[in-house]
Design brief:
The structure holds two protein chains of two kinds. Chain A has 13 helices and 18 strands. By secondary structure, chain A is an alpha+beta fold. Chain A folds into three domains: 155 residues, ATP-grasp fold, B domain (D-amino Acid Aminotransferase, Chain A, domain 1, 2-Layer Sandwich); 81 residues, 2-Layer Sandwich (Dna Ligase, domain 1); 148 residues, 3-Layer(aba) Sandwich (Rossmann fold), CATH 3.40.50.261. In chain A, strands 7, 8, 9, 10, 11 and 12 form a six-stranded antiparallel beta sheet that branches. A four-stranded antiparallel beta sheet of chain A has the order 1-6-2-3, with helices on one face. Chain A starts with a helix and ends with a helix. Chain B folds into two domains: 116 residues, NAD(P)-binding Rossmann-like Domain (Rossmann fold); 169 residues, 3-Layer(aba) Sandwich (Rossmann fold), CATH 3.40.50.261. Chain B contains nine helices and 14 strands. Classes of the chains: A alpha+beta, B alpha/beta. At the A-B interface, α9 and α13 of A face α4 and α5 of B.
């Protein structure tokens, strides 16, 4: 799960990590009231969306005085912000963060994530902050410091000291930096984060160390034990069809193609998308109905697929292991008889009770295109699109 | 020979009285798996699917000599179940449960590190050595005994590939679903090492997907130390970056973990890559006809 920058900063504050003073505007009519409470300029006006690269799309701007801050805030609020991470459709800005500005002496990078190969958390730091870590890793791999944390001992002062000294932090800030790193690690572990990133971590002209930007992602599998984090979910940042799908335990990701697909199992779903592409067209979505899908779930899944107006054909690819083919066929027939389906539906079933499943499809009064193999299914769906 | 499990394997089912546990216990018994015990705390002394149930793994092992375990418990208690099995030195542990917090798994991996324990999963379909033992949830009837070892991060995609092989008359020695989570008990290299020593396995079919670097690690190992032919397929060529594609571990993060990188690494190590998931079986056939 992702959260906004301003939420991440509140969490940092809770763990004793300083950030600039900020105000969040969720309703543009509040803007005058908020501005009147700010007595120190310049300020930075920052669009709050769940995507990086906001500055590149004009979503982060400096305002030298109150009037300019007002104007910029009004510009950014409600704008359709396009960044390298939003895709060309962009994201509507519904929250804006206004923060005090600083003169910056040094920009650092500090992040914690899970190193999958080392089976451990890893703290990553660099003296060259402010650019994306991926870019940093490509251009200056030697400037990246890494501390693997053995969970058996957790974070220790020496880990943080080693990083701090290697970051060439000046003497009077060493103690503070060490405890900042330790606190960030505790936040990471106790909140079950998958990423806790401060980029940049800055040292100001007044020699204060601050988290100027923050990005925190959480492990979805651990959300059940963190009510306070679940409360931070912002449904405005998710696509309506994806929210609808998640209510039924369906894994749905909307894409831009024309072939809606419904598959059981994540790997097979990805493989089916790839096959659609190889057959010369594009998938409209990723949709995994899971191994234990019921007829109702299949019905819901079908409804969601067809709500996407770009869908010109549907491909159902089910390898019945736990999910039996007859159950699936029942769900599909039920769904189609309830709603008006005016696109061709190609079905490929294999596995447990496949004969029964095919029987159900063939005996329904509905018009399915039945495919024998995966390749056959992809060819048939590509043929109806063209 | 097959690896990890065979007709001698004595299986314990943790979570045997749950819906999934009971259903698959029954399915495994039908396949011929020698299930000797079940564990559900509080239900010791009863029977489930005709199998004696114990309160603790320790009691189950003491009474029945179980030497492999399969876990069907809810994700919030699954790490505890793995640790309980590991604490009794059960050598092969398969965890089916999906949705275990990453940090729970980090602690599990720290505990079993260096011990003679092979954990498969979590979030996986398990292991099958056709006609000998099924320690998993895969449909048994699509498998056929033979000489291809399969290692895969997926469930149904593995069934698809197995099906393609069996349709062509090509059998399997052992099929392992290593799981779709970011932190898993055994990765591709761990399994390749086991297959290397297995005289029954003549070639490997490796099914990867986006996210992480376990395919790249496999590529490196294959180049250095794996003499048998490997046929590969990587799912997720069309997956968008930054999105979790169903599996917790299937995510392209910061431009890393793409299908293309993995395909290139494997190709450079001499792995035969099928671009299409529909043609993996055919490619295996072509390769073994030429090489074996």
């Amino acid at each position: 799960m992702k959260i906004h920058e301003y939420q991440a900063k509140k969490l940092l504050n809770k763990w004793g990590i300083p950030t600039p003073q900020g105000h969040v505007i969720e309703d543009i009519s509040d803007v005058h009231g908020v501005m009147n409470n700010i007595d120190k300029f310049p300020v930075v006006v920052k669009a709050q969306i769940h995507a990086g690269g906001r500055g590149k799309g004009g979503g982060v701007r400096l305002a030298k005085d109150r009037n300019e801050a007002l104007e910029i805030t009004k510009d950014i609020f409600g704008m359709k912000l396009v960044t390298p991470q939003t895709g060309p459709e962009g994201r509507r800005v519904k929250k804006v963060l206004i923060e005090e500005g600083f003169d910056i002496k040094k920009e650092l990078y500090l992040g914690i994530t899970i190193d999958r190969a080392m089976l451990s958390p890893v703290i990553i730091a660099s003296e060259a902050g402010g650019v994306e870590i991926e870019e940093l890793a490509d251009k200056y791999p030697e400037k990246i410091l890494r501390e693997i944390i053995d969970p058996a001992i957790g974070i220790r002062a020496f880990h943080a000291r080693r990083l701090t000294f290697n970051l060439n932090i000046e003497k009077e800030l060493i103690k503070e930096t060490v405890s900042l790193i330790i606190n960030l690690y505790h936040l990471f572990e106790e909140s079950d984060c998958s990423l806790a990133e401060i980029n940049p971590l800055v040292i100001t002209k007044e020699n204060k160390i601050l988290a100027l930007d923050a990005k925190i992602d959480f492990d979805d599998n651990a959300l059940y034990r963190h009510q306070e984090i679940r409360d931070l979910r912002d449904l405005n940042e998710e696509k309506p069809l994806e929210i609808e799908a998640s209510k039924y335990g369906l894994n749905y990701i909307k894409l831009d193609g024309k072939v809606g697909c419904m598959v059981n199992g994540a790997g097979l779903a990805m493989a089916t998308m790839d096959l659609i592409k190889l057959a010369g067209t594009e998938p409209a979505n990723f949709l995994d109905v899971g191994g234990g899908a019921s007829a109702e779930m299949v019905e819901q899944a079908f409804q969601i697929l067809l709500s996407d107006k770009n869908v010109e054909a549907v491909l159902i690819n089910i390898f019945g292991g736990i999910l039996r083919c007859d159950l699936l066929a029942e769900g599909v027939v039920k769904a189609i008889s309830k709603i008006d389906v005016n696109v061709p539906v190609v079905v490929r079933l294999e596995g447990t009770n496949v004969e029964k499943g095919r029987d159900i499809l063939n005996h329904s009064s509905l018009n399915f295109i039945v495919a024998k193999t995966m390749q056959d299914a992809a060819n048939k769906v590509a043929a109806v699109i063209k | 020979m097959s690896i990890l499990i065979n007709e001698e394997t004595r299986v314990l089912v943790q979570g045997i009285t749950g819906k999934e546990g009971a259903f698959h216990t029954n399915q495994m018994l039908l396949y011929g798996t020698k299930i000797v015990a079940g564990v559900t705390p509080g239900k010791g002394g009863s029977k489930a699917e005709g199998i004696p149930v114990f309160n603790t793994v320790s009691k189950a092992v003491e009474e029945t000599g179980a030497n492999a375990s399969i876990i069907f418990v809810p994700p919030s208690v699954a790490a505890d179940a793995i640790l309980e099995a590991a604490d009794e030195n059960i050598k092969v542990i398969v965890c089916i449960s999906e949705g275990i917090p990453t940090f729970d798994m980090i602690y599990v991996m720290k505990y079993i590190e260096g011990k003679d324990i092979r954990l498969i999963g979590p979030n996986c379909p398990g292991i099958i050595s056709p006609d000998k033992c099924k320690l998993g949830i895969m449909p048994g009837h699509i498998h056929k005994k033979g000489n291809i070892g399969i290692i895969s991060r997926s469930g149904t995609l593995t069934y698809e590939v197995v099906y393609q092989l069996t349709e062509r008359g090509i059998g399997q020695s052992t099929c392992i679903g290593i799981g779709g989570d970011p932190i898993i008990g055994s990765n591709f290299v761990d399994c390749l090492k086991l297959f290397k020593e297995d005289s029954e396995t003549l070639a490997i079919c490796l099914i990867g997907e986006i996210g992480g670097t376990t395919e790249e690690d496999a590529a490196k190992y294959i180049k250095e130390d794996f003499p048998k032919p490997v046929i590969g397929y990587i799912a997720g060529m069309t997956a968008p970056p930054g999105r979790r594609m169903g599996h917790a571990g299937a995510i392209i993060a910061g431009g890393r973990g793409t299908a293309k990188e993995k395909v290139n690494a494997l190709k450079a190590s001499g792995v035969f890559i099928s671009e299409s998931p529909a043609l993996v079986g055919k490619l295996v056939e072509d390769v073994i006809k030429k090489r074996i």
